[in-house]
Amino acid sequence: MSNPEAMSGSDRGRSDRDPVTGLFVAMRDAWLAIAFGEGMGGSAATRQRFAERGDGAAADLPSSCAQSSLAAEFVVPMGHAMMIAANRSVSYWLNLAQILADHQAQSIQALGAEGIDGSVAGSERLVAVDELRALLREVGDLATREARLLQSEFATLAESLAQSFQSSDQSGPYRRRWRSKL
Amino acid sequence: MLEQSTQSVIAQLGFVSEMAQLRERIAGWIGNCSEELREALEWQFLTGSKYFRPLTIFSCYRAMSDGPMPERIMQSALVIELFHNVSLIIDDIVDRSPTRRGRATMHTKFGELSALMTSGYIVAEGYLQLKDDLAGIALFSELLKRLGVAECLQWRLRRQPLGIEDWRKIAGEDTGSMFEVCACLGDRSGQLRTFGGLLGLLYHGCDDVGDVKGLAALGGGGEEDLRDGILTLPAALAIRDPGTAKMFCDPEGGNLVELGRCFVANLPEAESYLDKIAEEARNEARSFASNPLPLIALIEQTRHLGRY
């Protein structure tokens, strides 16, 4: 991704428009509130850094649970990853249902024509086959598209994660560790 | 009007100076070519091009990145224009077209031998221009291979009672491959490949519809496809009717005027199908581009061309 920050912004824009994403954002927020509220811990700084790149939900979490633990560092991004995966899964099934609904009328028409007299004229058969091919293409395209979206969203998340966990001393001058050979 | 609208999109997207640079590069390149072919190259390159393919490369770059256009992108824009013109020269020979963009085609003006040799020369020059851009070389090789396969496929499948899915396959390999490669040249991550394919499909369909309307808005003639029984979008829709399919498949060419009327009757459905493709392309741009606006402008421009 040439511009992770911009992609992150575009992801947020998409979320604003998508009711399914909205539902999962709400679920994630609730889950995070429970997780942190029950004292799972987590560095406040990490939560803050991640929230700046995410939807800002984690920023409102209580600061009382600021005890560091390696496991907790991964709670927020893992929650985000699970939300993304669940969102893509739901989106796939909803879009699949839409495609099937769109093609239903034509498919019934094609099957009905054959059912009446058991035979279909050559041209009608060609139209029915073309219709079926369009359906199969659209279903295949949908699966590919959702997989590409998942890949893109995970790449953005991974980039945010990498930036969040960069230690601050890396910005300073690089010091090579060396030991003289005796 | 067409020229004006393309120029206005170039201005709207802020690519005026890049286009001027591209024209200079083409003129400079011709100046360094063999004197033997220079007149033919000037005839082919120095007038009438809409530069829509370079515009697609620039737009795809801008959709994913900010900042000035890198040298690699300018180089790709030059070479896509070279390769596009090779495909035009070959198409004109195959279609026996006497004119393009309102003037004699290269083979009409300079003869078939010169036209064929010049197209080979342009391909070799294109690869030289790419220098050490290995990813670019791979993409241009993919393009030439796919264009060759698409032409053979289209010719083999002429005068056959096929459907819209077959049209999609042919158009996707023909114009679709051209714009897929443009998108990949502009954004080397491959994120916009599907967008490019959809834009190419839309362009091909708008060209088909424009031809049936009897207009040359997209540079094509129109009668050649009808005469040769090529599967265009209006043809694929019209031949669902058995009577029209019989006329279309007639090896003698049949009644072309009546066949043309059947195609015209299917134009509203063709337009509606193109609207669906345009919407697919918009969704693709919104989902995968950091800044989808340049890509949406390309879609609108392409859709607009088919409506003349």
Task: Explain the overall architecture.
- The complex is a heterodimer of chains A (182) and B (308).
- Helix content of chain A is 73%, strand content 0%.
- Chain A has 6 helices and no strands.
- Chain A has helices spanning 4-17, 19-37, 44-53, 70-73, 75-117, 122-164.
- The radius of gyration of chain A is 25 Å and the shape is elongated.
- The model of chain A is unreliable at 1-15 and 54-62 (pLDDT under 50).
- Chain B has a two-stranded antiparallel ribbon.
- The relative contact order of chain B is 0.12.
- With 308 residues, chain B is mainly alpha-helical.
- The interface between A and B is medium-sized, with 22 and 25 residues.
Describe this structure in a few short sentences:
The complex is a heterodimer of chains A (182) and B (308). Chain A has 182 residues and is an all-alpha fold.
**What's the overall average pLDDT of chain A, rounded?**
71
Q: Please count the helical segments of chain A.
A: 6
Largest interface: A-B, 22 and 25 residues
Strand content of chain B: under 5%
- Which oligomeric state applies? heterodimer
Reading the helices and strands of chain B in chain order gives: HHHHHEEHHHHHHHHHHHH
What profile does the largest beta sheet of chain A have?
none
User: Which strand order do you get reading across the main beta sheet of chain B?
Assistant: 1-2
- Give me the strand/helix succession of chain A: HHHHHH
